[in-house]
Predict the 3D structure of the following.
Amino acid sequence: MNNLMSLMSLPVIESKQNNQVKKLQKIVSSNKYRQENKLFWIEGEKLCKSFFENVKMNGKLLLVFDQKTNKKLIINFCLKNNIKEVNFTCLSSSLFRGISQIENSPGWGIVANYPTNNFSETKEIKDVVILDGVQDPGNLGNIIRTSAAVGIENIWVTKSTSDPYSPKAIRAGSAGQFITKFSFFSDLNEILNRNEISKMQILATVVRSKSVNLYDTKLDLKKNCAWLFGSEGRGISSTAIEKNKLLSLNIPHLAKIESLNVAIAVAVCLFEMKRQRLS
């Protein structure tokens, strides 16, 4: 409680040149900095609450707040969520606005370490979503949200994929990041050589004539599935599909539309898998 009460008398940081402010700016804006330091920004009471409910704490948190924020609300939040290991930083309103990533911000957010389960584990898995080159953080967040809603526990991403812990991906993910295990790989070849998926059917969605209709009655999605989705512009290369003998699927849609948005494609595929397993 003494630590919580200390925020009532914290000095206000007002300079953009302050080292802590520079660090916060990098955390919210730089994928490279976040990934190298394993730190990310969470803003909004619902997301923060979900983080504390689902993620095992790893190290001390930093709670950053606007000087005009009601400090008693922050103290009450910390007490309700049993948050003890926390440091505080108070920013001037203009500096906090430069850090904040949402409209109608509550006036505070937290800097947390990447969850400890976000590394490759050599254990049997049931299903996995593999993302190779998905660039838009909004798409990525929606994919994470959908995967979590379906019950996918593992998402594997290549280096060419956007950061799942960027502020925009966190918001679009709607707390999906906190109930999903991420594994990071250099490229698709590294993933396809993993033992964990050697006995799974690997399914790649493509826009090509020589592919299986997702709704083909012979397609059995009750088996363990590794779903592979590529970048918004290129998708998965035909070379990778043929070389690795992947099962290519198409989602039937009007021919005048070239393709579906990747997040929509993920949702259609995963919920078809869910439908089959319910029947």
Summary: The first helix runs from residue 2 to 5. The mean pLDDT is 90. The longest strand covers residues 61-66.
